[in-house]
Design brief:
six-stranded parallel β-sheet, 370 residues, Rossmann fold, 2 domains, 38% helix, alpha/beta, single chain
Length: 370
């Protein structure tokens, strides 16, 4: 899977990058102004569940500005559930093989398109294809395809970076919290049933832990031995019930952690759908996570979150919201991820994952007490 992602990135960087340059140059000859009252607006977001969660305040703000406008999100199956059931989104179009003809039929159908991908050239090409006017990030090869651009600074949180795109259409709004992810009643009941079958009671102190990370940069993972020690200490000291959250592929990792623990815990990975997991996470009082999707989901669902950072900067990716905590120790090579350039390197430090290993169990414990 990691190899496939690397191949896709290379194709996107060179082949799609060249297309962006050519089409962008020609597009400048036919510059179109931003419509005063767009009737159809599209948002493109094709990657990363956690990143998708942070786009919701912008999309809602745009809908509030253009109340009578139809708002469409173009997403992949992977992040579809983030946008599902949100009342301010009128339609979601899946960018999947079976929808090729539908996508081809969208040529210039939208008055305004927001490209919410930090670096993908493909998303910019898609924005150009479907939109009369395009908004995206500046200082990139693909930026020539946009009519209006905003910066992607390293010293701003990603929520504020996305809201910077909104400023280009006159939206000036300070965001303090993420929007809660909506869950259907049947999915809430399924999550409740799972907890009941796992002997979790309504008033138990439920602590969620996410020990994995998306395949793009596995180096974001805190050592599993430390999760073992931390989870055992939480159970012994606070009488908490531990639920481990992760993708189906991370079930094996979680089982390895569970097997080394002396206290009981629950492995949720692969046992619930993403929407059901949204509901379960909402029931956690505290959520401890690597810098990955479930961390942002937990912040959106109102948990108190402790985020563990190393390769990425918490200035940009911290769990958003009052009371949430980011643990991070800067090293000579961290942060090494540069999202806006698609740079997500492997760790070549002599001490592998030095930046993550600098976070101690005692440090996390100290912040748990708060």
């Amino acid at each position: 899977m990691t190899l496939l992602i690397d191949i896709i990135r290379v194709i996107d960087k060179y082949f799609n990058g060249l297309l962006c340059l050519i089409i962008g140059f020609l597009s400048k000859l036919f510059y179109s102004k931003q419509p005063k009252k767009p009737t159809k607006i599209a948002f493109i977001k094709l990657w990363a569940i956690g990143d998708s969660v942070t786009t919701l305040p912008l999309i809602k703000s745009v809908k509030e500005k253009y109340k009578k406008t139809s708002v469409i999100v173009i997403a992949k199956k992977r992040n579809f559930s983030v946008y599902k059931n949100q009342k301010f989104i009128d339609c979601i179009v899946l960018l999947e093989g079976r929808n090729v003809l539908k996508i081809l039929g969208l040529f210039r159908k939208f008055d305004l398109v927001f490209d919410l991908e930090p670096y993908l050239n493909f998303s910019a090409l898609l924005a150009w294809y479907i939109g009369k006017t395009r908004i995206g990030f500046s200082d990139q090869t693909r930026s020539t395809l946009y009519n209006e651009t905003s910066a992607f600074p390293r010293n701003k949180h990603i929520v504020d970076i996305y809201m910077g795109l909104g400023e280009l259409v006159g939206i000036k709004k300070r965001i303090t919290n993420l929007l809660k992810l909506k869950v259907r009643e049947k999915d809430k009941k399924k999550a409740d049933s799972f907890l009941k079958q796992s002997y979790i009671k309504k008033f138990d102190l439920l602590v969620g832990i996410c020990p994995g990370a998306a395949e793009s940069v596995r180096e974001r993972m805190w050592p599993k031995e430390r999760f073992v020690t931390l989870a055992d200490k939480i159970v012994k000291k606070y009488g908490a019930k531990i639920v481990f959250i992760g993708s189906p592929k991370e079930s094996k990792l979680i089982e390895q952690i569970k097997n080394k623990m002396t206290e009981p815990s629950i492995n949720v990975a692969g046992k619930l759908t993403l929407e059901q997991t949204f509901s379960l996470i909402e029931k956690c009082k505290i959520f401890i996570s690597n810098d990955t999707g479930p961390m942002h989901i937990a912040a959106a669902q109102g948990c108190k979150v402790i985020g563990l950072f190393g390769p990425n900067t918490p200035k940009r990716w911290a769990p958003f919201g009052k009371g949430n905590i980011s643990l991070y120790h800067k090293t000579e090579c961290s942060p090494c991820i540069v999202n806006e350039k698609g740079i997500m390197p492997k760790c070549f430090n002599r001490e592998f994952q030095k930046c993550m290993k600098l976070i101690t169990v005692e440090e996390v414990e100290k912040h748990l007490k708060k």
